[in-house]
């Protein structure tokens, strides 16, 4: 028997012995989760502006069970050093964020992140508003988002040593989008349970994606005469109930890029 084959058999025996003796081969600190109600970031003219993480809770030391409740939130941030100032205003009520991890239970581990919002209004507009006579030159707002009864979740289940199941979910009671970036005579509306990565609206400046899910995976390959090929194992999942991506949108004469995330959850 070749030395390489003997080495493979020895490794298999060591792994089996470890499992039978109750020794976990995965680090307990591998589990982590994040839930954030709202966050936005923008860049223009070399400036970067962010709302900060609104209603966020996170942990990476399993086991954990961390809920957070925010009854009311209001914040405005200026995007450009102009006057009037292009300003993003966020108002939200009933923010509930929760993360949970069981830690390692014999040969399994589960992690869950939930984000829920009773209602929120997010507006991108000039502050102070332009005179009524200028409404045709400066149609306002640039973007307005109204959301009621939104929830998002990410769950990640692991069976050691290498079987994983990532799951994401989104539910939207009511969503309405309007403004000059939408460029529609009637507001855009949605309610329900969107499919994964559902693109609600898209033009050159704006993309609105519902239930956006990003799964990070590890690809491991073996080589040699008895190679088993490559195996892909999911390592984490991110779910954004609403993702609004802005690309070089003309706002007050300047190109602005960035994104707004509503109902952001992450689990690994």
Automatic annotation (TrEMBL):
It comes from the Bacteria. Residues 1-30 form the signal peptide. Keywords: Signal. This is Uncharacterized protein. It comes from Methylomonas paludis.
């Amino acid at each position: 028997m070749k030395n390489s084959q003997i080495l493979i058999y020895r490794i298999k025996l060591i792994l089996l012995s470890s499992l039978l003796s109750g020794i976990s081969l995965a680090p307990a600190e591998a589990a982590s989760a994040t839930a954030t109600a709202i966050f936005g970031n923008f860049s223009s003219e070399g400036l970067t502006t962010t709302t900060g993480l609104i209603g966020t809770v996170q942990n990476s030391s399993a086991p954990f069970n961390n809920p957070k409740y925010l009854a009311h939130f209001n914040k405005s941030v200026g995007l450009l050093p102009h006057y009037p100032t292009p300003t993003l205003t966020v108002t939200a009520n009933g923010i509930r964020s929760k993360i949970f991890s069981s830690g390692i239970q014999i040969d399994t581990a589960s992690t869950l992140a939930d984000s829920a919002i009773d209602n929120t209004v997010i507006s991108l507009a000039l502050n102070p508003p332009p005179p009524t006579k200028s409404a045709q030159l400066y149609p306002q707002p640039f973007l307005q988002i109204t959301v009621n009864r939104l929830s998002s979740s990410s769950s990640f289940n692991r069976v050691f040593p290498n079987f994983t199941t990532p799951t994401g979910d989104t539910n939207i009671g009511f969503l309405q989008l309007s403004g000059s970036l939408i460029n529609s005579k009637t507001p855009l509306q949605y309610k329900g349970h969107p499919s994964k990565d559902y693109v609600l609206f898209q033009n050159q400046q704006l993309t609105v994606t519902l239930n956006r899910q990003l799964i990070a995976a590890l690809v491991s390959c073996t080589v040699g005469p008895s190679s088993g090929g490559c195996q892909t194992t999911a390592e984490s999942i991110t779910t954004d109930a609403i993702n609004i991506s802005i690309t070089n949108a003309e706002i007050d004469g300047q190109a602005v890029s960035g994104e707004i995330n509503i109902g952001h959850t992450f689990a690994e």
